[in-house]
Write a structure and sequence with these properties.
The structure holds two protein chains of two kinds. Chain A is of the alpha/beta class. Chain A has a single domain, classed as P-loop containing nucleotide triphosphate hydrolases (Rossmann fold). Helices cover 36% and strands 25% of the residues of chain A. Chain A has ten helices and ten strands. In chain A, strands 6-7-8-3-9-10 form a six-stranded mixed beta sheet, sandwiched between helices. A four-stranded antiparallel beta sheet of chain A has the order 2-1-4-5, covered by helices on one side. The longest helix of chain B is centred in the N-terminal third of the chain and has 35 residues. Chain B is mainly alpha-helical. Chain B is 78% helix and 0% strand. The chains are: A alpha/beta, B mainly alpha.
Chain lengths: 255, 222
């Protein structure tokens, strides 16, 4: 990633409240093209909500999200247009159960981008081959394992050629032996220079894939930095405590 | 046994054309009900208090009101008061569509509620707009969930068409009665044979629909 890469996403002081509960408190962030930003934090800290605010699945009370120089506004009719540029993958995969793998992949390109069926299928098959699921193209989601579903969900987002991918705890619902196959796909996407924002609990993976780490706690960005500094030389107590909770020798001390 | 009257003249053909009248009324109202019920069901899930209140009242009203009273109300009641001259068959179509739409919309609403919010979000985040999300993602899923329940409703509607003879429509049951009356002297047992035949005709009309539902359920299961 070159230092002068252009900014793709700018988050300006966004604040999110559910009724009276403040979930995000003036969070600001900039993401450059090709950058991989990994967000960690204790559960309930607002990190998933933060991702969901970026493509307006949640409305925000203050601040703005600017994608490619355009403000994303949940009330404006161009919202679908903006969402085309933001791919999102969920913890629970959310494939469409009534459609085959191939149909899941081609639906949005055909209906939203008006890509021809043949062209869309060609690209889908190429991507399926890449994640090793070509033989599953005519299966229904229910016939796939969790790891397979999640790999399909990732390439379904890629089918729209998004400028940025949001991955929301994509391995949290998976059996441990399936985590690797999904994370390998993400690592390969990072290697080809995709812009991504990732919320995860897999710390080793985070360290391997991240260009920049962000720690959110209590609805605010508490600390951010390069992965090596972030994991080896945390500046704040809160981050230190949080990271300690992932290493086993500290269990005796914290409980 | 009383079956012999069916072979007299055109009696059996008359029964079949009576069955056709019953099926025509029920199938047209089913088609109207599915279409309107789908729309009303979707409207009911939107957070619009007025629509919710109105549809609640409508649903309760239809549920409480016996279909026969509704038939009388539309056919006899409206004639003088609103100076409308609605034919019996049109009245039947109106009543059955009102009833079917109410029940169907409740089925649609229930099925819609069973689809998690995140399915919509998954569709939205692929860039599909609200209309596309309903047409390509949500409605196909609820149709699959609704098949068994709506088949139940359709067969109930076919069976309930036997009420329309009360407003003078000559459908299968009425034809049966006419045949029995006409042959009271010559075949006193006609009631058994004719009503049993009517029973079988209803069965033959409803059974394939049940089979179709089973087939669709199986086909869409994987």
């Amino acid at each position: 990633m070159s230092a002068e890469a252009k900014e793709i996403l700018t988050v300006k002081e966004i604040t999110k409240r559910f009724d009276d509960i403040q979930v995000l408190d003036r969070v600001s962030l900039q993401v450059k093209s090709g950058e991989v930003v990994v967000i960690v934090g204790p559960s309930g800290c607002g990190k998933s909500t933060f991702l969901r605010c970026l493509n307006a699945l949640e409305d925000i009370q203050e601040g703005e999200v600017i994608l490619d120089g355009e403000v994303i506004n949940p009330t404006n009719s161009g919202l679908s247009k903006a969402r085309e540029k933001i791919g999102m993958v969920f913890q629970s995969y959310e494939l469409f159960p009534h459609k085959t793998v191939l149909q899941n992949l081609t639906l949005a390109p055909m209906k939203v981008k008006k890509v021809g069926k043949k062209e869309a299928e060609e690209e889908a098959l190429k991507l399926l081959d890449r994640v090793g699921l070509l033989s599953k193209k005519d299966n229904y989601p229910r016939q796939l394992s969790g790891g397979q579903k999640q790999r399909v969900a990732i390439i379904r987002a890629l089918m729209m050629h998004p400028e940025i991918l949001l991955l929301d705890e994509i391995t949290a619902a998976l059996d441990p032996e399936m985590v690797r196959e999904v994370l390998d796909v993400v690592l390969s996407l990072a290697a080809e220079g995709r812009t991504m924002m990732i919320v995860t609990h897999e710390m080793q993976f985070a360290r391997a894939v991240a260009d920049r780490m962000i720690f959110i706690d209590g609805g605010r960005i508490v600390e951010e930095g390069a992965p090596d500094d972030f994991f080896d030389r945390p500046k704040t107590d809160r981050l230190r405590k949080f990271l300690n909770s992932f290493s086993y020798e500290s269990c005796g001390q914290t409980t | 046994m009383g079956f012999e009257v069916l072979l007299k003249g055109t009696n059996f053909i008359r029964l079949l054309s009576g069955l056709w009248v019953a099926l025509r009324i029920s199938l047209i109202s089913v088609a109207i009900s599915i279409f309107l019920g789908m729309i009303l069901g979707i409207l009911m899930t939107l957070k619009a208090p007025v629509i919710q209140a109105v549809s609640r009242i409508y649903l309760e009203f239809i549920r409480i009101m016996p279909q026969m009273v509704l038939l009388f109300l539309v056919y006899f009641g409206t004639t003088r008061v609103f100076n409308l001259n609605i034919s019996a068959e049109t009245s039947a179509l109106i009543v059955f569509s009102l009833w079917g739409t109410a029940e169907m919309s409740d089925l649609v609403r229930g099925s819609l509620k069973s689809i998690p919010k995140i399915q919509y979000e998954s569709s939205f985040s692929l860039g599909l707009n609200t209309y596309q999300t309903y047409v390509y993602v949500i409605v196909p899923q609820i149709v699959r969930r609704m098949i068994p329940l709506s088949i139940n409703l359709i067969t109930r509607m076919i069976k309930t068409t036997s009420l329309v003879m009360m407003i003078g429509i000559v459908e299968v049951l009425k034809v049966g009665q006419q045949i029995i009356e006409a042959n009271r002297k010559s075949s006193p047992n006609a009631a058994f044979g004719v009503y049993l035949t009517v029973f079988l005709l209803y069965f033959l009309a409803c059974w394939p629909i049940g089979r179709l539902a089973k087939y669709l359920e199986k086909k869409w299961a994987n």
